[in-house]
Amino acid sequence: MRLIGISGSTKSIRSSLTEEVMKEVMKGGDKVAIAICTKSRDLRAFEKDAHHYLDLGAEAVMGITPSNMLVLAKSRPILDALELVPPIDYLLAEGCEDTPIPRITIGEKKSHALRSWSPGDSLDGVLSKVKSLPSIRVRLTVDGRRIPLKPYVQDVIVAIIEGFLSTLKGYEKNARRVSLRMDLQKES
Hints:
Helix content: 25-40%
Number of domains: 3
Low-confidence stretches: none
Strand order of the largest sheet: 1-2-3
Order of helices and strands: HEHEEHEEHEEH
Number of strands: 7
């Protein structure tokens, strides 16, 4: 990935240059994301620009303010969308019925559900099921496709990476998360 800033006196000129560079780069088959940094805390104006860039072919558009960030991206399955969020411990997927993931149903328990819940019921049973789920320790994505890994394979990968990291200066043994992305082919 290459990162380049575009600066200028007016927003319209910056946007025009950003658009032109984006179009030219995409002609070669490269994928582009746009980041719009603003000193304003209001992201409402960002949405119009984001949809414009997405319509032109951007993979994602990020609006970054001093206090938060909003990402709009082309639609993708929920498990692939995890690549766009910061490290988290739980992802609560509201809806997403077509995705085969552990699920809590409201009302009558479905055969594929971990548990059912009804308004007024205690959350104890739901929380015990949620907290008992195995963690996804390793996420593997190859050319934008998520490759599911069995828990044993995840454990093996973690052990190999921990062994490698333990030899590096600056690695702290009690670190919680490691992020590694690789480009298998050298960019020209």
